[in-house]
Amino acid sequence: MLSRLFDLLGSKAKQEELPDEDRLQVATCVILLEVAGADDEFSPEECERIVGAMRERFGLSQEEAEELIRVSQERRAQSFDLWKFTNQINQSCANAEKIRIIEEVWRVIFADGTLDGHEDYLVHKLARLLNLNHPQLIDAKMAVLKETRGTG
To answer: What is the pTM of this model?
Structure first.
């Protein structure tokens, strides 16, 4: 499934021909990678969290999740902004699913135990791009904090 993503990366025109599910996987992974790199550190905990999220969310094997990350890093490097990725999510996902994606963003942010100012700025920007309001963003943050602290 994901191996065809590599084949399609060579041609920009072909990239847009990816099936919706593959585009959604790449878009979601790019968002998580962007957040992981917001503090200029891509910790092993953040990487592990992203691999786990991709495996769980899309039913991928370890190898497929790692391949998706490699493909997504390539796509992220070719893009100037996050709009096309969040737009793909907006087109593919209901509001409840977008909230689950923002929760995953918070999990990546908290994977290394800290909330950097750049990460905080980026998660607010992502919420706006995903058409989520501030209470939804904060509810997602609180749910993840409760979960990570073992009180949920």
So the answer is: 0.84
